[in-house]
Specification:
This protein is an all-alpha fold. The chain is built from 4 helices and no strands. It has one domain. The two termini are 24 Å apart. The chain binds protoporphyrin IX containing FE. The site of protoporphyrin IX containing FE (HEM) has 19 residues, from helix 1, helix 2, helix 3 and helix 4.
Length: 149
C-alpha cells in the first residue's frame, strides 16, 4: 500500500475535493442544457450553439474532472491501507460513486444523440435525470465525512 507524507496527504485530499466539485458542476449543468435543447428547433441556431456548449462541457470539464476524482480518490484509498475495505461507509460511498459514473456515461450518450439530432427524450425526463447526481452527491459526502457505519 501507499504511505503519503502528511503534507502530500492533505494536498491529495484538497485536489480530490476540487476535482469532485468540478465533476459535480458538470453533472448538474449538462442536464440543464439538455432541458433547453429539447425545445430547440433541429438545425436551428440555438440547437447548434447548445451542441457546442454540451460537447465542450463534457470533454473539457467533466471527463478530466472525473478522471482526476478517481486518481486522487484512488491515492487516498491506497493511503488508507487494506483495512479501509472493512469500512461500511467506504462501500456505501463507492456504490454511490459507481452510480455517478453510470450517470456520466448516460449523459455522454445523450449528448451524442443531441449532436446527431436523434434525441427522443422529453424535458420531463431530463428534469428527473438532473436530480439523480444531487441525491448521490448528498449520500457520498455524508458517508465520506460523517462515516455513519
Ligand atoms: C471516484 C472515486 C472516489 C474514490 C476512490 C474516493 C475515495 C476517497 C477516500 C479514500 C477518502 C478518505 C480519505 C481519508 O480520510 O483518508 C475520500 C475523502 C473524500 N471524498 Fe472521495 N472518493 C471518490 C469520489 C468522491 C466523490 C465523487 C465525492 C463527492 C461527490 C467525494 C467526496 C469526498 C470528500 C468530501 C472527502 C473528504 C472527507 C473528509 O475529509 O472528511 N469523493 N475519498
Amino acid at each position: 500500500m501507499l504511505e503519503l507524507p502528511p503534507d502530500a496527504y492533505l494536498w491529495v485530499k484538497a485536489l480530490h475535493i476540487i476535482s469532485v466539485i468540478s465533476w459535480m458542476a458538470g453533472l448538474l449543468y449538462l442536464p440543464r442544457l439538455f432541458i433547453y435543447h429539447t425545445d430547440a428547433e433541429v438545425g436551428g441556431e440555438l440547437s447548434e450553439t447548445l451542441k457546442v456548449m454540451e460537447r465542450r462541457l463534457l470533454r473539457i470539464i467533466m471527463n478530466p474532472a472525473m478522471i482526476l476524482s478517481f486518481v486522487f480518490g484512488g491515492l487516498l484509498l491506497m493511503n488508507m491501507g487494506a483495512g479501509a475495505w472493512q469500512e461500511g461507509w467506504l462501500h456505501a460511498k463507492l456504490l454511490c460513486v459507481a452510480g455517478l459514473f453510470g450517470i456520466h456515461m448516460a449523459m455522454a450518450r445523450w449528448r451524442r444523440e443531441f449532436a446527431e439530432d436523434r434525441n427522443t427524450r422529453t424535458q420531463k425526463f431530463y428534469r428527473f435525470a438532473n436530480e439523480a447526481p444531487t441525491i448521490l452527491m448528498v449520500g457520498i459526502v455524508i458517508f465520506a465525512v460523517v462515516r455513519p457505519f
